[in-house]
């Protein structure tokens, strides 16, 4: 993933969820169950953006961006 515009704070946090397919993600994201509890996350974690990437390879991302890896992981 390459950033071409905007400011990405160095202390930014990334949360990654893995789903078996884009359809499964969309089913979860738009479900009444998720909508009912979504505030539990958004009330405490400021979200500047939310996006979905199909085929995202976390290992490759951390290899290219080691500053985002946590020690011991």
Q: Any key phrases for this structure?
A:
73 residues, mainly alpha
Please state roughly what percent of the residues sit in beta strands, choosing from under 5%, 5-15%, 15-25%, 25-35%, 35-45% or over 45%: under 5%
Give the distance, in angstroms, between the N- and C-terminal Cα atoms: 20 Å
Characterize the main sheet.
none
Query: How many strands?
Result: 0
Q: Evaluate the radius of gyration.
A: 14 Å
Helix count from the secondary structure assignment: 4
Overall mean pLDDT score?
A: 83
What is the helix/strand order?
Answer: HHHH
Describe this structure as you would to a colleague.
With 73 residues, the protein is mainly α. Helices cover 34% and strands 0% of the residues. The protein has four helices and no strands.
Q: Secondary structure elements and their pairing?
A:
Blueprint (H helix, E strand, L loop, with lengths): L21 H8 L2 H6 L1 H4 L15 H7 L9
């Amino acid at each position: 993933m390459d950033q071409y515009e905007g400011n990405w704070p160095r202390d930014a946090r990334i949360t990654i969820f893995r789903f078996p397919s884009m359809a499964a993600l969309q089913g979860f994201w738009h479900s009444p169950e998720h909508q009912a509890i979504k505030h539990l996350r958004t009330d405490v974690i400021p979200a500047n953006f939310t996006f979905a990437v199909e085929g995202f390879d976390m290992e490759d991302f951390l290899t290219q961006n080691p500053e985002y890896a946590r020690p011991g992981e």
